[in-house]
Every structure is written in C-alpha cells, then in structure tokens.
Amino acid sequence: MQKLFYPAIFHKAEEGGFWITFPDIPECMTQGDDMQQSYEMAVEALGLALASREEEKQEIPAPSEPCKFKVSDDEFCVVIEFDMLAYKKRTNSKAVKKTLSIPEWLNEEASALGINFSQVLQEALMQKVGIK
Fold first, then answer.
1. Most exposed residue of 24, 113, 115, 123, measured as fewest CB within 10 angstroms of its CB?
2. Half-sphere exposure of residue 84, counting CA atoms within 13 Å on the CB side?
C-alpha cells in the first residue's frame, strides 16, 4: 500500500472555504479556508485516519469510484492522493535500536573499511521490502 486515491466531498461553507468528508472513511473530516488549504488539510486528515486504522489493526477500506457520488450544487468531488510511505517517513522516523549478530571476521573487515552498519542495514531492509 503505497499511493492511495480516495474521493473526498468538498462542501462549500457558508462562512467561506470548505468542509471535507470522505465517504469511504466516515470518521475522517476536516476543513479549510480556501481550496489549497482545504486540499492540504484533506491529505493530512486522510493520513491520520488511515494510520490510526492501521495501528489499531482495522480494515483499510478500498477507495470508491469518484463518479459514484451524487453531489449537490454546493458540493464537488475531489480525488485526494495519499502516499502512505511518505507520510510514515514524515511522521514516524524515530530511530529504533536493534541488536544483531554477525561473524567476527565480517565485523573486523567492515570496521576496517569504515562501513556504517546502521546505514547498510537500512539500505538492505529498504531493498528487501521494496522501498526505493
């Protein structure tokens, strides 16, 4: 699950700006003063909702087709692009200590070459899980 595209309904607010709902994720709502801020807030709200569902081991619903929704004159549908990996990198990049074992001879050779063990492990893990 890398990039996701969810339809959002932008409702024109009486006082200006928009309030936004996600039909596929009922608990996800936000608002903004103008189109740009509303879109940015929608991306952030979607990220919080999906990350929360993932943390709580809840189902991540499949996105609906945007043309499925009938909207009134003061509403419109916008597809919100969300990159889960980028969101996780931005919001959860704290370091986690891991203990591992390697043969002594390999440790000596790598140390002599000044190899950064943490960097090598991160690069190998990213390659292994298919992250560029």
1. 113
2. 15
Crossing angle of the two packed helices 84-91 and 35-55, in degrees rounded to 10: 80
Residues 63 and 41 in one domain: yes
How far apart are the C-alpha atoms of 11 and 21, rounded to whole Å? 8
Pair (75, 18) in one structural domain: yes
H helix intervals, 56-113 = 84-91, 104-112
Range of the domain at 113: 95-132
What's the pLDDT band for 93 if we cut at 50, 70, 90? confident
Here the tokens at position 32 are 């903004």
Query: Is residue 82 domain-shared with residue 113, that is, in the same domain?
Result: no
Question: Can you list the positions of beta strands (E) in the chain?
Answer: 3-12, 18-21, 29-32, 75-83
